[in-house]
Amino acid sequence: MNKRQFDKKIIAWSLIAAILNPAAVLPAYGRDSDIYLSPDPAAVAATVPISVLNRAQNATDIYLAFFQPGPSSASLGTVKKFNLSTDPTDCGGTNKTPCLIGQTVLTKSPPNPSPVKNIENVTGDSITRTQSIVIDPNASSLWAPPSITDGGRPDQGGTGYQLINTAGYDPSTRNLYTFISGTSSTVDLTAESNAVR
What are the backbone angles phi and psi of residue 169, rounded to the nearest 5°? Predict the structure, then answer.
């Protein structure tokens, strides 16, 4: 899989555009675009939710879906929640806003500001003079305890952590149904014949 890495400004301006005017966002930078923020071959897609009551408003929540194909038929993946911040203290200065933040303060090495909640790490290649932006591996997303450093790993934290660690949750009691036109005998999704096994 080839990695595409977007410049930090493109990511920031795309997220700002999506927050300020979700309908005007170009498809290439919209909620379905793939943004690769990890040096591992993990695909990341950003989603910016809009208010149901007022489509001109957004929360500061940013959801990143992580997916990493593997050699087996099962692949790794989860959805993680981060926040968009415009606070220079969180981001590492006024020239670093807006930024994506987790719930812990991170200590980083130059050229990254430190200590900050900004989850983005900028790495530079002195030969090609290019910069890459990756998610700090020590970052903690908002759906896991601060002690869980899940960073950009698709096999830790996020929705998967919530499903496994929620009291009373048992995967065997989870029901999943589907309707396939021409195959399913009824449109009732709770019918036993539409259960996915």
Answer: -80, 130
